Each structure stands twice: as structure tokens, then as C-alpha cells.
Automatic annotation (TrEMBL):
This is Uncharacterized protein. It comes from the Bacteria.
Length: 103
């Protein structure tokens, strides 16, 4: 997100798919952390399925691009399920994939 913001003005919506009870707190913490780094970020909880979450939130009048954070290849269930390709087909825009930090 910082690299994208460095290229020019940017607003972000962090969409967290999932229905687990910790999701609202995880989303709040993530948004606060990103804002502390100077990013203009809003948070949104989505459906448990990541493709359904993006499809429900997607509005081409509101968003220009989709950046998807996944685990590394070999550990990512989303990559095995072709989530990036499915999101591209649902939104009509290319999905930029970044590898998230693992703990």
C-alpha cells in the first residue's frame, strides 16, 4: 500500500473476509496500523469467501484496482483455489497480488 501511495494520491479500503469472532478487532488494529503509517485507509468486513466479499463490495465508480494479500505459494489456500483469477473475472480488473507477512 505504501508503494502504491508513493506513486500518487490514493485511498484504500481494507476488506477483511471472514466471519470469525476476532475479525472486527483484527480489522480495527490493521486499519489503525496502516493509518499510523500515513495511509488513507477505511476498513470493511466482508463475507467469509474472499471472492464473494470482493464481489459484494466492488463498485467500479468507487474503486480503481484490487490488491490481494496472500500467503506464499505452497502455503496459500487462496492461490490453490485461484482466488486472484476468480476476483479478476468478478470485477473485470487485474488483481495485483502481494505476499503478506507470515507469523
Amino acid at each position: 500500500m505504501e508503494a502504491r501511495a508513493a506513486r500518487g494520491p490514493a485511498e484504500f479500503t481494507l476488506l477483511l473476509p471472514g466471519a470469525d469472532p476476532d475479525a472486527p478487532l483484527r480489522l480495527l488494529r490493521a486499519v489503525e496500523q496502516l493509518r499510523s503509517r500515513g495511509l488513507d485507509v477505511a476498513g470493511q468486513l466482508g463475507e467469509a469467501d474472499p471472492v464473494d466479499a470482493v464481489a459484494a463490495a466492488w463498485d467500479p465508480r468507487e474503486y480503481d484496482e484490487v490488491v490481494l494479500s496472500t500467503l506464499p505459494l505452497g502455503r496459500s489456500r487462496w492461490l490453490a483455489l485461484d482466488v486472484p483469477g476468480r476476483i479478476e473475472r468478478a470485477t473485470g480488473v487485474a488483481v495485483e497480488r502481494v505476499v503478506g507477512a507470515t507469523e
